[in-house]
Structure formats: C-alpha cells, structure tokens
Specification:
Length: about 110
C-alpha cells in the first residue's frame, strides 16, 4: 500500500522543510501586498509551486492551493502556508537524514531501515 506522502523527496532535511515554510509564508505575505496586480500574483503562484515541489516533492495538499490561488481575490487566504504546514506536519528527520513519518516512529527500533 502506498503512503500519501510517497512522492515527497527522500532527502528531506530540516533545512529543506524550513526553507519550504519560509517560501510559503513569504509568498502569502507578498500576495497580500500585490493583490491588485493579478499577473504578478499568477507568476508568483507558479514560481512558488515549482519551488515547493522542488524542495519537498509532490504532496497532494499542494493541489487545492494551486486551484484556490487561481481564483481572483481568494488568493488572499494563506493557502501556501497551510499546504506546506500540512504536508510537513508529521515528517521528522532521522539521524541518517532520511524522512520518517511520526506515526512510524513507534516501531520500537531506533535504527533507520536499510
């Protein structure tokens, strides 16, 4: 059975997660500042989507953000921030640097699989 995070990057690090969260928050703040300039907002959304997918990999939570951001004036809602926080909410990074879901952390073993 495939996990819903199966398309997330295998090399997630705390730095990648932090960078993605900063990109999302910055994009949402910028969208409020340039809201009347619709073409700039659309270009920003495309760039943010590409950056987030590059940093984290694909997560299904990005899809509603992409759709909502395309609706005029609804983009004032901080959807990028919400989607990134949702996508990274239960991802921790093991000492080996491999991402591990919190729900899998209780397996009893402290060694990374491999």
């Amino acid at each position: 059975m495939r996990s819903y995070t199966s398309h997330m990057r295998a090399d997630l690090t705390p730095g990648r997660i932090l960078a993605a969260r900063l990109v999302a928050v910055t994009a949402d703040v910028l969208q409020l500042a340039i809201l009347p300039a619709a073409p700039l907002v659309e270009a920003l959304d495309v760039a943010v989507a590409m950056l987030l997918i590059g940093l984290l990999g694909w997560h299904w939570a990005f899809l509603p953000s992409i759709v909502v951001e395309a609706i005029p004036f609804v983009g004032a809602v901080p959807t990028w921030t919400a989607s990134v926080l949702f996508a990274t909410r239960d991802v921790s990074v093991t000492p080996a640097g491999l991402p591990k879901r919190e729900k899998d952390a209780g397996s009893g073993s402290t060694r990374p699989a491999g």
